[in-house]
Design a protein that fits this description.
- This protein has one domain (3-214): Vaccinia Virus protein VP39 (Rossmann fold), CATH 3.40.50.
- 43% of the residues lie in helices and 20% in strands.
- It has helices at residues 3-17, 22-38, 53-62, 85-92, 107-120, 131-137, 153-165, 178-185, and strands at 73-77, 99-103, 124-127, 144-148, 169-174, 189-197, 205-214.
- Helix 2 packs antiparallel against helix 5 and helix 3 packs across helix 4.
- The model has no long low-confidence stretch (mean pLDDT 95).
Length: 216
């Protein structure tokens, strides 16, 4: 199978898992093309996953929408190559009042994310700053806070706590070590969390955090 055919097959599989409308799909196609071009210059995702970008990255991101169907204001911590923030923003671009805030301190990656927002017309804004600084400067409300391949759960709790305290739901994409991370986090936090199986990985899950309180 040619690389183009492999990619087309992966795209079809991803869209079967996480369907989107035609306008969102056009934005996602533009995003994939842009990321593939920039990937030649900076490392945005693992090169080994390029042929499966639609299932490994796009659908993996879009699955979060079903866990917070009414969320309009999203904050993505450590956005990196744009996941899950850009796919979510592409899907929500036609939703009145929707906005995704991407927090990324790496200058080159932040530049890529700004270009991704421009090219796709996604409902998003890039904050080129450290997560700990963003927590102090962002005073608006958020309906959902996300992170993917960013940090162990105890640190994510620390980073997301200000937003969850103000009503956001935490949606954290995790792998097979999630139980150990939850055990470690429970030493420092009282966490009301639920594990949802990943649509795209047999070993993966989404940690859904509804309440979070630091232990004294």
């Amino acid at each position: 199978m040619t690389p183009a055919a492999t990619l087309a097959q992966d795209r079809a599989r991803a869209l079967a898992l996480t369907p989107v409308d035609s306008s969102a799909l056009a934005r996602l196609d533009a995003f994939v093309a842009l990321l593939t071009d920039w990937q030649r210059r900076i490392n945005l995702i693992a090169n080994s996953t390029l042929s499966e970008i639609w299932t490994r990255h796009i659908a993996d991101s879009l699955q979060l929408l079903r866990l917070a169907p009414d969320a309009k204001i999203w904050v993505d911590l450590g956005s990196g190559g744009g996941f899950p923030a850009i796919p979510i923003a592409c899907a929500l671009a036609g939703t009145p009042g929707a906005m995704v805030h991407l927090v990324e301190s790496n200058g080159k990656k932040a530049a890529f994310l700004r270009e991704a927002v421009r090219v796709t017309g996604a409902s998003a804004v890039v904050h080129a700053e450290r997560i700990e600084n963003f927590g102090d400067s962002f005073t608006g409300r958020a309906d959902a806070v996300t992170a993917r391949a960013l940090a162990p759960l105890p640190l994510l709790c620390e980073q997301a706590a200000p937003l969850i305290a103000r009503g956001a739901i935490g949606l954290f994409l995790k792998g097979q070590d999630v139980e150990a991370e939850l055990t470690e986090a429970a030493k420092y936090w009282s966490v009301q969390a639920e594990l949802k199986p990943s649509l795209t990985s047999r070993d993966g899950c989404v940690v859904v955090v509804r309440t979070l309180t630091r232990k004294s």
